[in-house]
Amino acid sequence: MKIVIASSEAIPFSKTGGLADVASGLAKALHQDGHDVTLILPHYRRLTPPHLVGEPLGAINVKIGEKQAEAHLLRGNMPGSSVRVVLVDKPDYFDRAALYTEKGHDYHDNCERYVFFSRAVLDAARFLNLQPDVFHSNDWQTGIVPALVKTEWRRQAGCETTGAVFTIHNMAFQGKFPWWDMRLTGMSWEYFTYQQMEYYGDLNLMKTGIVFSDVTTTVSPTYAREICRPEYGYGLDTALALRGPRLIGILNGVDTEEWNPATDKYLNTKYTADSFQEGKATNKRELQQEMGLPQRAEPLLFGMISRLTDQKGLDLILAKAEDLLKADIQMVFLGTGDIRTENAITELAHRFPQKVAVRIGFDEGLAHRIEAGADAYLMPSRFEPCGLNQQYSSLYGTPPVVMSVGGLADSVVDTTPETLMNGTATGFKFSTYTPEQFISAVWRCVGCYLHDRMGWKKLVENGMRRDWSWKRGATEFVQAYQRAIQLAKT
Ligand code: ADP
Ligand code: GLC
After folding, report:
1. Domain containing 30 — which CATH number?
2. Omega into 91 within 30° of 0, i.e. cis?
């Protein structure tokens, strides 16, 4: 199958969160399965390491509002894979210090930047003669792609049945812009209705992707159900419920070339399920040293790597941190985002310098070293479409403590005597978002670590031996693509 995947970020070219891991991981897995895959990304010149940028492929003229603007297409080099990557180079839009937001403010022209990019995806597909069977776009940044496929692309001879699949990674970010930005899309005002692109007077690019796609996917089966309800749908629950069987949940996989403790390039000491005890002990010591914590084997070291937003449950951790820190526990945080949360965890580290260490910022290598060096992982998200760190944690022998929501509910099996016996337990879950429920799950984790060494070993091995790869997810995506092509025909 010929597949074009459009994403605003993908590792190792650019990244702010899980979307980057997913775009590359899925593209590589589909390519490995023999599909003809092209991954199209913006070229963030200042942020992409130059050795990842290959030869020029040509120039295209892209319509943006009333204007035409030129973009250059460059080949991207995906390390360790021959999947085709195309970078859209347009410095006035993408050569900036960050992807979407700088110093707490979204770039004022985000709508223009990503409508331009979305149009460039279709123009690049035409220019490079890719003849895709399906366009797969992701989140609001490329939400207009399905609309362009339906209203423009399919009018070309031979393109009548090209499918459009749209994946929702997070309903909390919808790409809402003032109505006058509709002009930028170059689409007719007839589509600016509440059934299509309009949302309470604004242009809504996430809604556009949902409504126009043949098949809408999201990143876990539980989240697919949750977003049809007002608590999780962020105002689009009705639009989502109306999709019926056209909305499906496919749990994200893990790019096991990037995330694998046996081969991880960011670790001095690599390990497997058979050598995790020594392997993790060494990584723990190194992590304690890197973060300036006392190098002791005894404490249970919790790790957390996160965008610091409302979503991720830092308020639960902060509410119970003092209680927790009465026990022999250490905590390592890596994150950036909301300034108040950054300050609150930094202050916690100042108050408990022997127990808590914080790094504010984005650091891919440290993220890997935390997964390897921590004993257990905290992910008490208020909501979580899929979540990748709980999967990485399991794979690195670092059982996660999670709120049972979205993809966390689907990917973590709670530890009970039964699940330990039958070899399925991978972590600790709580089901109501309260500090009390959270801390009781943490105490269960601490209790198991301290008092049931055999049980803990089993838990770690279960997580490390489970298949977290994209194999299953890639197959489910191919089925979604086939369904989209089928629906495009009708
Ligand atoms: P989300 O996409 O909501 O942020 P995910 O769990 O799906 O959550 O993915 C987060 C990804 O971003 C993981 O790969 C995680 O390691 C990475 N990440 C988040 N914050 C940082 C950070 N400060 N430094 C390095 N990596 C980070
Ligand atoms: C979003 C979600 C996260 C998901 C990621 C990749 O950022 O918050 O849960 O894992 O996208 O799909």
Report:
1. 3.40.50.2000
2. no
Parts of the chain with a pLDDT under 70 = none
What is the pLDDT, as a whole number, of residue 103?
A: 86
Q: How many C-beta atoms lie closer than 10 Å to residue 332's C-beta?
A: 24
Q: What angle do CA 50, 308, 43 make, to 5 degrees?
A: 20
Question: Same domain, yes or no, for 298 and 162?
Answer: no
Q: Using H for helix, E for strand and C for coil, what is the string for 90-154?
A: CHHHHCCCCCCEECCEECCCHHHHHHHHHHHHHHHHHHCCCCCCEEEEECHHHCCHHHHHHHCHH
Q: Residue 104: what pLDDT? A: 84
316 and 173, same structural domain? no
Asked whether residue 288 falls in the same domain as residue 224, the answer is no
Helix axes 435-451, 453-465, angle to 10 degrees: 110
Among 170, 371, 382, 389, name the best residue to mutate to test ligand 1's pocket (greatest count of ligand atoms within 8 A of Cβ): 389
Counting from 1 in the atom list of ligand 2, the atom nearest the Cα of 169 is: 11
Report which protein residue has its CA nearest ligand 2's atom 5. Answer: 18
Query: Is the shortest distance between the CB of 250 and ligand 2 below 6 Å?
Result: no
Ligand 1 pocket, Cβ-based, cut-off 6 angstroms: 17-18, 21, 305-307, 334-336, 362-364, 367, 386-389
Give 261's DSSP letter: T
Q: Please state the length of the chain.
A: 490
Q: Which of ligand 2's atoms lies nearest the C-alpha of 21?
A: 6
Mutate to test the pocket of ligand 2, among 388, 408, 476, 477 (most ligand atoms within 8 A of CB): 388
Is residue 193 situated within a structural domain? yes
> 201: domain range?
2-253+471-488
From 7, 8, 14, 21, the mutation candidate for ligand 1 (largest count of ligand atoms within 8 A of CB) is 21
**Chain-wide mean pLDDT for the chain?**
97
Predicted local confidence at residue 490, as pLDDT: 84
**Predicted TM-score of the model (pTM):** 0.97
